[in-house]
Structures are given as structure tokens and as C-alpha cells.
Fold this protein.
Amino acid sequence: MTDEWEVFALKYADHNIRDRRESFLFDDNHDAPWPLDYFVWLLKNNDKYILVDTGFDRSESELRGRTIYQEPAAKLAQFGVKPDMIEDVIITHMHYDHAGCVTDFMHATFHLQEFEMQYATGPCMCHGVLKKPFTVSHVCALIKQLYDGRLRFYNGSAQITPGVEVHLIGGHSRGLQCVRVKTKRGWVVLASDASHYYENFLNSTPFPIVVDLENMLQGFKTIQHLADSTDHIIPGHDPAVRTLYPPVTGGDDSILRLDVPPQN
Ligand SMILES: [Zn+2]
Ligand SMILES: [Zn+2]
């Protein structure tokens, strides 16, 4: 088995009625519209699949006023992948839009930073503003995986399998990790919420949901250090990803290939 992986972004939802103040701290153009996409990411090596994040389901989209097109498991099915084909799930962090459909993949092994579980189950959750991006049923589902022996913890950097690494970033959430994947074009970094948009890391502009600003700013540097170039960094929520990378099938820009260079 080669250690080079194919990498895909699957967009399943979005939130378009929002503006720049929700994406960039201290932004001069704060009331300009600024849409946000929701993705999960799929890594493929022959017949082995690793899912990066589980997204959220329809009921969560209604609670939070988001637009969902397909639940992530249905999106995977459209790609020809059933939940029981996923052996490993990397959870970048436990916010509702990344850890919401854990129960669809209960037979998989989950990979999470220790700090993230401590954060999501500790005294910081007494503060409404820190608790807001979490949903308790998602946290409980991961605790169930822990008690069922299907949760692996990391503390910093680790190799999940040859060609797939996780690296602790923090900042946006205490135990946020990015994923570094070896591909035929080199090392790609799935930044997840270490950089929601290209602009966050390119301009060192913080995202407003933050628990440790210094770690967030350092994280912008770390992802650039880990990736072969800035073109190898995939931000977590940027609609620009859909114009930069080729769709897998025809004109459907909701499933994109990331292990080839950006096209524009
Ligand atoms: Zn987040
Ligand atoms: Zn997010």
C-alpha cells in the first residue's frame, strides 16, 4: 500500500445570510456579505477510507438556521461510500458542524485530541459564549465511543496511518487539530477551523470564535509550515475551494478533488 492518499471535499450545507464581522475580527468592511460552506473531507487509499469530521444532520440545521442539502452520510452515498466502509474518523474538534453525525459511524475508530474532550466536558462549558458551538448530544455520542473502546486520544502531533497525520492547533477550540495528508502533489493540510477562509491565514486575521487568540495566530503559521505551499492548505469553510478545485463529476461542485493542484 502506497502512503499517498486521494483527498476529497464534500460540501453538504451552507450558511449565506451572514457578514464579514462573523469571519474576521476588527474588519473594516464588517457589514459586507460573507457566505460560509460546510464540508466533510474524505481520504481514500485503494479500498481504505478515512473520514475527516462528521458534519451535522437535518435537525441540527433547523435548530441553528443553516441550509442543509444532504446529511453527510447521504453525501458519502452519492460518492459510493457507505458508513460501514469508514474505518477511521478524525474529529478535528467537537463543534456542532464537525462532530454532529458520530452515531452514523459507531463502528469506526475516532481520533481526537485530549484537550478537545477536556475542553468540551470541563469548566469552560459554564460560559455560554464558549459553549455555543457545541451540542451536548454530540459530546455524549463521543463519550459513548470512548466507553465502547472506539476513541483514540492524541496530545500534539501523531501519525494515524502512513501518510496521514494530526497536529494540535488549538486557538479556535482548545483541542482543534489539523490533518496533514500525503498526496501525489505533496503534503496537503486540511486546516479545518485552524483557518475558516484563505484570508484568515494569509492575512493573519483571527476568526471571532476563539478561546486562545495567541494559539490561533500561531496556528496560521503552523499550517503553512506543515503544508508544501499555501496552495496545499485547504481552509475549513471557504466557498472559494469550490471554484479552485475540480469537481469529481461534471458540473457538480459539491464533491471536489483536493489531491490535484488548484485549477485557477
Ligand atoms: Zn469550529
Ligand atoms: Zn467549523
About this structure: The longest strand covers residues 6-15. The chain has one domain: 6-257.
